[in-house]
Amino acid sequence: MTLRVAVVGGGPAGIYAADILTKSEVDVCVDIVERLPAPYGLVRYGVAPDHPRIKEIIKALDRVLAKPEVRFLGSVEFGVDVKLEDLREFYDAVIVATGAMADRDLGIPGEELSYGAADFVSWYDAHPDVPQSWPLDATSVAVLGVGNVALDVARVLAKKGEEMLPTDVPPHVYEALKAKTTTDVHVFARRGPAYAKFSPLELRELNHSPNVEVVVHPEGFDVDAHGMAHIGTHKAQKMVLDTLANWVGRDLEGKPHRIHLHFAEAPVAILGDGSGVTTLRTERTRPLGDGTVEGTGELTDWDVQAVYRAVGYRSTPLPGLPFDDRAAVVPNDGGRVLDLDGSPIPGTYVTGWIKRGPVGLIGHTKSDAAETVRHLLADTRPTATSREPGAFDAYLAERGVDVQTYEHWLRLDQHELATGAAQDRLRVKVPTREEMLRVAR
Helices 57-65 and 12-22, interaxial angle, to 10°? Predict the structure, then answer.
């Protein structure tokens, strides 16, 4: 008997799980349930537009969606159009792979005046569920965090809008970026440069713009014994430190825009008035010798008109599933979802960031999915009561859900590629849900 599996979430984590299932020795059919009309999750809506190299992974993901054992069911929202108990009626197992799209909080006064990096990324990536406008009238901006998302936000804010024209951004994003007034972006890290989480390639690319120069400030640029030991066991972070060290104190070229990197400065408050942010207040930190830092009491006020939090993504609770609010994941044992008493919930699994938190790169996501699928195949037996191939389709039709199939996505994909080709660009995204559905139909 064919094993029926539903995967909730059409990003890399969910698609990898589907791929691994179809490559197993078990006869399976997999339906990927995705709330958006388009697949690929953060690869489509979380990667900066000026990083088309990273988006090449879509080609591999698309080959999975094209498999006869896999179906893409877009515009189906878990918890609204279908509940977990409903899926269990039609499928022998459910894998939840909904990722993490919310911003983590800092817990400092005035935080409500700041922007979340995830929200800004969704805007410039033309996510169909976010407004099309974004305020870009700040001359000086602060970005809090030292991961790749922080670099993406800083780079997009610092670059001239014309540099984004060759990318896949739709007209409203391009026009807004072209009109922005930002000249200086200040990126702040609580710890020293040995612990920066940038990838070496992302950091080096920061210096490639003809209009942006990177300024690494020497204050706080110290590496203690623990930091040296840390980079000694982390090759990528040693490469990052070497690049940063080469930039400290170098002569500036006089480019019109600047990205400033500040280390050992912890944000303690965001100040503002009725018109918005006026000041970011930071406290100089010092290392404690174990990789952590403490405040020194030395405060600095930075004249900025906008603050972006880029301190990590966070998963959100899902209807019908337990949730560990502190860790921001669904409690699980190797992908097996655990109830509040610690016992596995039959036929229910997680993979990706909702399983392990928003850490790691694409390679981690693939190995993560392999672990979950291995446990699923060891556990699962046919339990679905409505096993006919069209039973779930009929259920959604009765509820009036306008399902977007893989064929619909291909039409939308071809439309975006054709629009881009006409403008000598790779792709131009369709930005609204309504237009995406119209084109797909």
Answer: 50
